[in-house]
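Schema walk-through. Below, the input block comes first and the output block second. Nothing else is stored per chain. Lengths vary across the set, and this one has 797 residues.
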Amino acid sequence: MARDVDVGLASLQDGAPRHSSARLLTQRAPNERSDLGDLYLVMQGGNDQLCGTFSRTLVSSYFSNTTTNIVNSLLDGMRQAADQVAIDVSQNNRFETLGATVAVIEGDELYIAQLPPSQIFILRNDVLNALPDQSLPETHPHPEFAPDQEIEMFRVKLDEGDVVALASHDLRHELTKREIQGLLQSRLAQQAAHDICALVAQRGGQLCELLVVRVQSDQGTEFPTDPIEELIPSPRLTETPSASLPHGRTRWELPADTQPAKETTYEEPRSRPGTTLGQRLASIPLTAALILLLLPVMTIKAIVRLVSGRKHQSTSSGVTSAEAEINSEDRDPLLYDDWESLRALRETRAGSGPSSQTRTQLETIGTPITEGHDPFLPRPKKSLPGPGVFIFSLSLVLLLGMLLMYTLRGFEPEIDGPDRTSGPDGDAGGPTPTVVLNEESARNIFDEAQDKYRATLDEPEGKNVDGLLLALKNAEILATEALNSAREDVTLREDVNRLLVDIKKREETLTVVVKVTTARLIEKFTNGIGSSAKPLEVRGESIYVLDALESRVVESTPDQENSTTVLRTGDIVGSVTFQQPIALVNRALTMLVIDDDYNLVSLRSAQEPQLLRIVGTRNWRNPVAFDNFNNNLYVLDPGAGDLGTIHKYQVTAAGYEVEPIPYTNEAEGIDLSTAIDFAIDGDVFVLLKDSSVLRFSGGQKVPFEISGLFGEPLQATKIFTEVNTDSLYLVDPTNERIVEIDKTEGSAGAFVRQFKYIGKENFFAGMQSIWIDENETKLVVLGETSVRQFVIPKSAF
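--- output ---
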């Protein structure tokens, strides 16, 4: 029989309360799985996407488990969720920290699973218990998330009136255990969660996730609306480890008889910084402006006080009139400042026995302070100015002196060198001789640039290309200098511009540049398409594009004016909910779509999407590219093992139901850890991060090296080839080009040519993927916001 519970949730993000959070979840058990109990989850760290992945995987795995053992189901669900988050983290090559606490309530039993960092509190009979006993210090570096870290399991027998609080460990940094206990007592669950987060925000805290569950009694629980006047015991931690649970550390049992014990040492609340380094740097100009405005006022005030000897007006008690109007009875005793009262509690306990230290009046917390050495209350100021006033005065004098110096320097006459304002003998000349001298000098520089350009024309084609490109670069520099010096000489400027065009054409001839222009705009994406492993595939007349921002796959055909969405995140395929798509793979029979849960969906024209079975995805660590050959699936995974690998899947009737095998020969020790893309035409071509290409035939590495490419160094991000092409094509967005490399026997690796875009915008600078049909001279390019088709001439090589 399920317990009647009262549940409350609250969240704090960047110091502001939020009505909802991806890090909080409550899930009632389905009717057919009521024996597994209700599930409550609190997460800490990571981002909203990772937290969503963790919670979805946990709930799906836990309630779909066939076993009725809650401990085994909970451990399996936590492990699968951790594995899925680890895959997401490794795919994005980032450092993440993610902690989680899961509680399951079934009847009178409470099962707890913790993936540190996380925190849980249990309040029973006015005694606060915490798991773990000590939270991480605020300055402790957060450990990187690891899927294999140990999951801690606990089991607790619930009693009526128990209060369970699942929280992020930020709560222990901002509040003391006494405050947490006081706010959990005699409050509805939602009110307690809200008040705790409010107090954390008041203390300067930025983050807090909290879920409170109060176990109701059979007769119901009445909560007073008046301020709490009863005594509360001092908080203490009670721990009774018992027998170990399967795959866990220990079993937590609350004591049946809880007696007051000696109070633990008071913990000073610690507030984490409220601003980042960037925010502090941005505030420097405003601070400087405020100082400039306040310095004269403070200086005049100090001089007046020094001469007149008047004292600062204040109340005789040291409290301002505004503070005197505050009614102590209207304040929440737990939400008002309690530093002095807690300090007084420690002083009175110093000479008391243990029995006098167990209880204190809750109403004394927040009592107004009218005497003593409270650091928050104003004090009468001295009649004479302190040393700070003189320091400010001296700073003001120095500042005024610096401003005066800079102002006077602005009126000094500008003296130019003899090469600009003097004649040949060094005497001052008028403006006309200066212009004539600059124009004559510009003409000489132009003649030198033209000579260097003409010298490159006499060199034979294909010889000393690097030297010719260097000479052309020097000629371009001289021509630009002449253009800047020509000023009003229109004829010279026209000559220089024609020379610069000729230099550019000569460079393009030497580096075999082929200019292409848009033949057809296939599809436009106003907001962009985001980034994914393989976002473009062409199948017959259909062009498929993976739109990562809209989480969908679209199909464009020539006979349709608008594209069609054929699959999107959230669609139910078979018995699986399709997640974020990451890659498209074209195979002989159908088009494959892979999502970030590594589900495979087959798309066939005029048919519903079909889910294919694939095994062995648990061994994928950081897959960056996918391709197909003879209906076999290849997965490039540089994160697998120490050197990376290529997983090869043999096709079966229902998909890929046989465990993959490594494509490369592991005995050769080939390093694929820096691989970023690959393409297959029977041989496998792997593109590395340094833009070099490895070639494999039958799993064995064969020699292949790019040669003959001059000019800008290659910075490739994608590679393309197919069975029917004679070349490799490397996408280089940095240099706004597509580089063609020969792959035929006898000239493999030789540079052929490079394609550059003609147009106002730098379309090739945002290339995501390409597809080429050499026989049809068709080039399809997916940019940041559109898909375009180009016509490329057949190679003459």
